[in-house]
Amino acid sequence: MQWTLVVPLKPLARAKSRLSDTAAGALRPELALAFAQDTVAAALACSAVKDVAVVTDDVRAGRELALLGAHIVPDEPRGGLNAALKHAAAAVRSSRPEAPVAALNADLPALRPLELARVLDAAAEFPRAFLADAAGAGTTLLTAAPGNALRPEFGENSRSRHHASGARELRLHEVDSVRQDVDTGADLRAALALGVGPRTAQVAAGLLTEGA
Questions:
Q1: CA angle 100–101–106, rounded 5-degree value
Q2: Taking Cα atoms as reference points, which of 71, 62, 19 lies closest to residue 43?
Q3: Which domain covers residue 169, as residue numbers?
Q4: How far apart are the first and last CA of the chain?
Q5: Which of 48, 53, 155, 176 is the most exposed place for a label (fewest CB within 10 A)?
Q6: Whole-number pLDDT of residue 211
Q7: 50 and 59 Cβ atoms separated by less than 8 Å
Q8: Based on the structure, what is the number of domains in the chain?
Q9: Do 148 and 99 form a contact (C-beta atoms < 8 A)?
Q10: How far apart (Å, rounded) are the C-alpha atoms in residues 17 and 183?
């Protein structure tokens, strides 16, 4: 089974506010874009992925991610993360009704294609499934097999909400790169330890220089 991934990305100017203790205001949009670029590039290199749709209204991010091969879906609802994901999933299925769809966080800069393939292959066994984040309270991936609505419940404590919605939690080992999203400075250090993609590595190098 090959999946269409839906990746939500808020406007870069408002992204990653919780990194303020680690990165200056001017650098946070650059980090957010780098995270998304490395996430999308790794996803498109995954054998289990057919294509990637990024839902965003950020013109710069849309342009840069389209250059990588992503389809850009405007965030027409502008009603928050879950509304954006529902809109993008509906846009995908308007042309391919039986497409398996998965929502993937845009802040997985250490993402490895082989680990993502393992998660998606495991998810194919269930109508809906999800993977908890490294912190244990959130979600980095939610899947919906053909014939099933995505029904995203991202946000605070999304792990428990996705459980309550009937999605099956995927309890896999050695898929750390798919779990390690980046919201805080500690998260960024953990991702760097795993090994991030080239764009995040370049921006992070500038962050280290800035702090020197």
A1: 150
A2: 71
A3: 3-211
A4: 47
A5: 155
A6: 44
A7: no
A8: 1
A9: no
A10: 8
Q: From CA 100, how far away is CA 94, in angstroms rounded? A: 13
- Which distant-in-sequence residues (6+ apart) come within 8 Å of 189 by Cβ? none
- The closest of 115, 125, 179 to 148, measured between CA atoms, is 125
Give residue-wise pLDDT tens across range 56-114: 999 999 999 999 999 999 999 999 999 999 999 999 999 999 999 999 999 999 999 99
Q: Among candidates 105, 116, 127, which has minimal Cα distance to 172? A: 116
Angle at which helices 185-194 and 198-211 pack, to 10 degrees? 130
39: domain CATH number?
Answer: 3.90.550.10
